[in-house]
Amino acid sequence: MSNEDVAVSSKERSYRGYVTVDTYRLRHKISDDQWSGEMERQVVERGHAVAVLPYDPIRRELVLIEQFRIGAFTSPGFRPYQIECVAGIIEEGQTAEEAAYRETLEETGLEADALLPMVSYLSSPGVISEALTLFTAKVDATDAGGIFGVDHEDEHIRVFPVPLEDAFELLETGAIENGMTVIALQWLKLNRHKIPPEWAEAGE
Question: Which positions are catalytic?
Fold first, then answer.
């Protein structure tokens, strides 16, 4: 099945704010010779994003962040301040890699020396168009820490280094409650052998 197997009869902008919401009326193929009935669906449009797991291969530390999240605040049983990896929207005209370098500097104060692609996925394809591209970034975590973020976005992001195995322990104990960070840590736990050897050799 492909986009050619979807017939859109109308698309309307239902809401515009921090995100936009579009309402579609459409049908889609359910077999080679059969179509669904017409349905109405809303989709949240907020662009596409990157997430970055900064890693110091010499110190064997990850750099994580903690910040307030309204979705977590309004979800019973979850912490309003979420432990996360770096993340941000890919701006118009930017590549995912360019956004990853920019967001790492903005949110942690650290410059990424190199990127390793991890995985790309749809955050919630039933209602959101957003796709996330995940990277591990090589950083020097010697001076990692403090409060960072973009002033005009009223960001207050706490930055802290964590030994690699301690970060995996946060994952195992359920302290990580958001999908992008769970996926990033799980990927790294399973794929540490993919970290370029020269990352750990640099600076020796």
Answer: 153
